[in-house]
Amino acid sequence: LKMSWLFYLPLRLLTVACLCHSIKASTTSSQQSFKTNLFNFYHSLILADGKETTIHLLKDIPKRYYFVLEEGRILAPFSVTVTPCDVPIEWSILMYKASPSFPGKATQGDHDTQEVSKSQKAPGIMSTIFNYKGNSVETYMGMSSHSALYLLEFLSTERDTHITVYLTTDTTSGHLYPELPMDPRIDVIGIGHTTVTLTWKHSPSVLQHRENIQYCLLVNEKHNYKSLCAAETAIRSSGMKLPPTLALSLSPYLLEPQQVMILSNSELSIINKASSGEVRQVCMGTRNTYTVPNLSPSTQYYFDVFIVNLLTNASAAYTGTFARTLEEPEPKVPELKDGKVIHVVLDGKKQKFYSLQYQARHKRTQFTFQLCRGQIRVHITRNGKTVASENLSGLRYFSLKGKLLDTYVVQLRSTEESNSSVKVQASPHFQKPLFPLLPESLKIKSFSKLRTCRSVTIAWLGTQEESKYCVYRRRIEEDQIWRELQSADRCSGPESRHKSEKVLCKYFYDLNLQRAVTTETIKGLEAGAFYLFDVYLFGPSGIPVRYYSKVVKTRKKC
């Protein structure tokens, strides 16, 4: 009867043991080396046939496996596929072929005894039939003799790692790994600012097992991966937790916080976010053309396509490629028109400059900035050279002298995380000013000694120019004070206030700035209450300037 390899294995082990025992008396260096090789066989693990085996390697410690074939097959084809999952490794296949006359007995005189003695000195042949060093997926195919034992030796010299090994002697019932086409390259057929379009030739496995095969694409900013095993290892080592074969099956995994899953149009996308960038895995069925969306402009990306067998989770890698997205087009810079006011809102989170451009029509140009909310940094250049740069506060004028047709660029940036806003105007120096003449200070003062349970007295500075001042009040709660003062929009006018909040409007001025001050007593208030007071100054153009808000509390008892 034909013995299975499992039954045949003990006989092989017994043969190896006998060989080790028989050569103990030998003293030559070749016999000692042969003894070492037999020892390696004896202390190796058996490699399963027809099954992918995961092997963990410790740095600088070799690991050995061996296999034998069924009895009765003189020549049998076999293949060994090794997939490194991280760093390059060294691996080799050694074959031991026993001598036909070893072991034996002398039965016919001295001549036969002499022959047996020779065979004892050379019990068999140990030879290396294949070796490889690298991190590519490598397959060895050969023909095996039933009288030979095979030893596979694996070594990692860089660090601890793991690999997968697949041995098969059945070459007629299909392959564990999907087949790659004759040309396994990925072609880049389109590049945009935020997209890259890829195509690749179909795998023969797709035509044979369409329902069990799919393509998966890996996108990252570091380098290409030669196997899906290596890609998953890199993702884990970067601090992202990747469930096993997450990209290969559509099973409902619970994602980690740094993962995002997108499922649309029968397409599974998984985005792993980490400090070193993001890694995207997209499985798109059997389509062999795909446009990768939502990329960053002017960034180099690496693309790897894997053909995956959904039943076995085995995969094969196409030859990876890379592409750089196009640079982001320069945004069109808005132009400032003479005398026209532009209201700019800046995103504090992005911390990017917002640019405005102005071409001078006269030699002198005046830029006016009214800070509405937050904190803003302004930077002004003329023909590429810096002429002003500072943080804005309240209302600020820049009067600059240059030449006709000079090009000014105004750059604005929020200096805090919250949004900021500002009004900007550019005009010839002689043009009537948009904003009114301002006093030395825009602060409102209150007099504590003049406070009563029903009234408070406030004061503010005026100018030498007759102007209109309007006073508004609003009762607030104590826990609202900080928010009201921080969020106040100093560019908004009285039109944003309720009519009931208006107290009065008055005109005044004084040519002597020392006496350009006015006071007002606001009556009809509630005892022990907080009130928010605002004063608006109106100039000839009608555009108001808001003083800094003031909060005053009336007395509880009088």
UniProtKB/TrEMBL annotation:
GO MF: heparin binding
Task of the protein: Secretory protein that plays a role in various cellular processes. Acts as a chemorepellent acting on gonadotropin-releasing hormone (GnRH) expressing neurons regulating their migration to the hypothalamus. Also promotes neuron migration, growth and survival as well as neurite outgrowth and is involved in the development of the olfactory system. May also act through the regulation of growth factors activity and downstream signaling. Also regulates extracellular matrix assembly and cell adhesiveness.
Keywords assigned: Glycoprotein, Neurogenesis, Repeat, Secreted, Signal
Signal sequence bounds: 1-25
Location of the Fibronectin type-III domain: 178-315, 436-544
Organism of origin: Ptilonorhynchus violaceus (Satin bowerbird)
Keyword match Repeat: yes
GO biological process assignments: nervous system development
Gene from which this protein is expressed: Ndnf_1
SMART domains given in the database record: FN3
Protein name (Swiss-Prot/TrEMBL): Protein NDNF
